[in-house]
Every structure is written in C-alpha cells, then in structure tokens.
Amino acid sequence: RGCEDPKVTRAKFFIRDEFLRISTATGDGKHYCYPHFTCAVDTENIRRVFNDCRDIIQRMHLKQYELL
C-alpha cells in the first residue's frame, strides 16, 4: 500500500468520490454509499463490506416499515 503508484491512488479516490457524489446528489437520503478499497483475499475488509451491505438492507426495511 505504501508503494502504490500515485496515479493508481488518484484514480481510486476519483472513482470513490464519483460514487459518493452520485449517491448523495438527490439529497433525499434514499441512496447509501459505503466505499471500500479492498482485496478479495483480505478477509477483514470483506467482512466490513458484508456488514455494510447488511446495514443497507436493514435501513431499507426499517424505512419501508416507517421504523426509521
């Protein structure tokens, strides 16, 4: 990670920022974006991604049934 090419780092953050910008553009709180830079063999990062997916699904259901 410390030896990553600066162009790769800029590209990663550009893509992340675009997803964040698009997901919040409406301002209605209906879209969520949990950006992660991960590698499929890094089990801790994959666990974080799955936890965030679960959080998104739970929020959708709570809003659907007006509990949030």
TrEMBL record:
InterPro entries reported in the protein's UniProt record: Gprotein_alpha_S, Gprotein_alpha_su, P-loop_NTPase
Keywords per UniProt: GTP-binding, Magnesium, Metal-binding, Nucleotide-binding, Transducer
A GO CC term attached to the entry: heterotrimeric G-protein complex
Keyword Transcription regulation found: no
PROSITE patterns: G_ALPHA (PS51882)
GO biological process: adenylate cyclase-activating dopamine receptor signaling pathway; sensory perception of chemical stimulus
Any GO molecular function: metal ion binding
Domain of life: Eukaryota
Family: Belongs to the G-alpha family. G(s) subfamily.
Record protein name field: GNAS complex locus
Originating species: Sarcophilus harrisii (Tasmanian devil)
